[in-house]
Design a protein that fits this description.
This protein is an alpha/beta fold and 270 residues long. The chain has a single domain, classed as 3-Layer(aba) Sandwich (Rossmann fold), CATH 3.40.50.1820. The protein contains eleven helices and eight strands. It has an eight-stranded mixed sheet with strand order 1-2-4-3-5-6-7-8, sandwiched between helices. Helix 9 links the parallel strand 7 and strand 8. Helix 2 crosses helix 3 and helix 5 crosses helix 6. The longest helix is centred in the middle third of the chain and has 17 residues. It is globular, with a radius of gyration of 17 Å. The chain binds D-malate. D-malate binds next to loops.
Length: 270
């Protein structure tokens, strides 16, 4: 892992490959290890950088009671500066997709392409917000064990291997309880961002697992419909964690998206 000092908060990231910078943002309550296969598969096309968002993984613990998507987006912009990348290919899964959409709203000119994987542009419903409140109380009282079991079952498709289930469990159980609570609050507060998609003129790729029940195909289709020009890839044999469950299909979709950017970029292009 490498460390970037963001105004006194250490943000950790892993990188592999050379070329224009692509930044990968993980889901909730996970970390950059969910992208290991993608970094390996795409290292010949991009300098692939997977960040641990503040509070997560090997990044510093933080005292903020709310981890806002916009704050994470500002961190991604600062990391891109640190990497010397004016423009990036941004890839986000689920909560990482919420962060990517916040980034697209704040810094549209800094995007070369945008990949939204197993995510949604809609805001939380009242029911989802209430569920997040209950989850925050449960994880604080009971610890992460039950949440890890529940999320591993809920997020992976029926064909996920034991090894992938084990990695999911490690990520959830490795996430600080206060980070989980603050991230739940941050996700609750995020607005819908269909309008952001409708304004973006860069290539947008929407990817979803055919067996994703957390952010189903219908939500992916809503994003494609809202975007000016987006492509939809439905990935076979995958639930919500497509980059781990069917890595080759996701890497192929990203390679196709990046090829649409028109050129492979120059080092000064990030
Ligand atoms: C995730 O995978 O990041 C979560 O399912 C996002 C969410 O809870 O909305």
């Amino acid at each position: 892992m490498e460390i970037f000092d963001r105004d006194g908060t250490a943000l950790a990231y892993r990188q592999l490959g050379t070329g224009p910078v692509a930044v990968f943002v993980h889901g909730f309550p996970l970390d950059s290890t969910m992208w290991l296969e993608q970094l390996e598969l795409l290292r010949d096309r991009r300098r692939c950088v997977a960040v641990d968002l503040r509070g997560f993984g090997s990044s510093d613990a933080v005292a903020e009671p709310v981890l806002a998507m916009e704050q994470h987006a500002e961190d991604v912009a600062a990391l891109s500066d640190h990497l010397g990348a004016e423009r990036i290919d941004l890839v986000g899964l689920s909560m990482g997709g919420y962060v990517a959409l916040a980034f697209a709203e704040l810094f549209p000119q800094r995007l070369r392409t945008l990949a939204l994987i197993d995510t949604r542009a809609a805001a939380d419903s009242e029911g989802t917000r209430a569920g997040r409140d209950m989850m925050a109380v449960r994880v604080t009282v009971q610890g992460r064990g039950p949440l890890a079991v529940e999320m591993t079952e809920a997020l992976l498709g029926p064909t996920a291997s034991l090894h992938i289930k084990a990695r999911m469990r490690t990520m959830v159980e490795g996430t600080r309880v206060e980070t989980i609570v603050a991230a739940l609050e941050g996700m609750k507060q995020r607005p819908a961002r269909f309008d952001v998609l409708s304004r973006l003129s860069i290539p947008v790729g929407v990817v979803v697992g055919e067996d994703d029940t957390a952010t189903p195909v219908s939500e992916a289709e809503e994003m494609v419909d809202a975007a000016l020009a987006a492509t939809l890839t439905i990935v076979e044999a995958a639930g919500h964690m497509t980059p781990m469950e069917n890595p080759t299909a996701v890497a192929d979709a990203l390679a196709r998206l990046w090829a649409q950017a028109g050129h492979e970029g120059s080092p000064s292009d990030g």
